[in-house]
Description:
With 239 residues, the chain is mainly alpha-helical.
Amino acid sequence: xxxxxxxLCELLHKAFDAVPDLKxxxxxxxxxxxxxxxxxxxxxxxxxxSLKTEKLRDAVELLDSLPHCYKSASTVIxxxxxxxxxxxxxxxxxxxxxxxxxxxxxxxLCKCIRCVHQGQIWASNELLSHLVMSLSRPKFTDVxxxxxxxxxxxxxxxxxxxxAEGLSNHELANALKVSEHTVKNHLFHIYDKLGVxxxxxxxxxxxxxxxxxxxxxxxxxxxxxxxxxxxxxIGKSPA
Length: 239
């Protein structure tokens, strides 16, 4: 177990002690020691926290940083309020299960750990639907208004495309070769221009088709004919 609030980690540790087939091994909730491990550690499943209640490490970053000795271990992420981008990023980084804290029943958590240890994927139906969306999501073109005018700069459009691929801020920064602060500025401007408040809304906005207002164009002949009709009506004598 690692990257968990101290009290939660202590409670889980005591609870696991009463489960015969689940054993907690060192290091427990010691992220630096876990990341600096150099010799083989016999671990089957890592329970990694991503709870947004304390100043904890980013779970995606930790997954990418796990040393080689943990490569054979499967990882379960204990998190809350996951959004579309986070779900995709966590699974892309190697997570095998995502357990929401809102459904934190200890017996269910034990079942999750056992399933992941057996090679299965664990996620709620809602989270699985996010994964399906990522696979079946249609491609979208530049975001424009109903007149066909671009709403975003070329750079902002690039950020939005990568956002739709489920990249985290850290991954966006690496892909664009900029700082995470710059990424946050781009996202702020994108949200402001599109009138949305989060990543999911921005992606949905980009995927929602908007009918363009057809431009009025008439041929010279049609205009002439229309003018003739108007003149004929004006010059028509009353009955």
